[in-house]
Amino acid sequence: MWDVLVIPAPMDIDGKDTIRWGGTTTRNFTIKSAYENQNIRAQPIEGDWKAVWSWKKPNKIQTFMRMTTHDRLLTNFRRRIWDVGASPTCSRCVRINETIIHVLRDCPVAIQTWIKPQEWWIKLNYKDSLDLVGCGGLFRKLDGKWIKGYLSKIETYDDLSAEMWGMYLGMELAWRQGFHHLQVESDSKSLVDMITRKVKFNGNPPILVRRIQELLKLNRHVQFNYTWREGNKSVV
């Protein structure tokens, strides 16, 4: 039911529906994603994991902590070890191997805070809620002053869908408010790559991606920036 509720009502600009693979965020099939969806028996790892496994917080944070503790985050360094990546270095700072400790602590991008927009520009920060039942965002000027905010209940348990709704509703509101020089900051690299056409789809992109791209035709002065969630903390 939630999968149906998250899909917006059809419009003429949406085009035809296409069948998609559910194992990746881009909805494109890969052998790797099929392999990862199989039930693989993991090797036991020595250590005291009681604090990690008993920590009572949102499930996605628990999962992240467990993957980090078990050194299973798919960093460039680990992908190179598994022979599924060309370079082990960080794709953001391009300085050193992208290990977990680099991703979480040492990378300059990981420790950055909110960056001011250019003069005469307005910045949109948005995010999905921690329990994945809604999304919201806010607009701010160069001096960090709050201009306008929004919040919407979308009833989806799909993290990417919540991110798409957050961006779409924010950009639609920006157009209605006349914010024609807009910097959109997102902590979803997958979505930013989809919007900026760095991802090639087998068929049509998701409906909300297409609608965001239609909004871009109305306003060409829009910039998209990817930031770590720490850099997007202004809307947490």
Question: How many structural units, i.e. domains?
Answer: 2
Beta fraction: 5-15%
Number of helices: 9
What would CATH call the homologous superfamily of the largest domain?
Ribonuclease H-like superfamily/Ribonuclease H
Organism: Trifolium pratense
Domain Reverse transcriptase zinc-binding: 29-114
GO molecular function, one term: nucleic acid binding
Domain RNase H type-1: 134-234
Describe the protein's architecture and organization.
The protein is of the alpha/beta class and 236 residues long. The chain folds into two domains: 57-111, no CATH class; 122-235, Ribonuclease H-like superfamily/Ribonuclease H (Nucleotidyltransferase, domain 5). The protein has nine helices and five strands. The protein has helices at 2-5, 31-36, 50-53, 59-69, 76-81, 100-106, 159-177, 189-195, 207-218; strands at residues 122-128, 134-140, 146-153, 182-186, 222-226. A five-stranded mixed β-sheet has the order 3-2-1-4-5, covered by helices on one side. α7 runs parallel beside α9. The longest helix has 19 residues, at 159-177. The radius of gyration is 19 Å and the shape is globular. Pfam families: RVT_3 (PF13456), zf-RVT (PF13966). Residues 29-114 form the Reverse transcriptase zinc-binding domain. This is Ribonuclease H.
Q: Keywords, please?
A:
about 240 residues, alpha/beta, Nucleotidyltransferase, domain 5, five-stranded mixed sheet, 9 helices, about 30% helix, globular, RNA-DNA hybrid ribonuclease activity
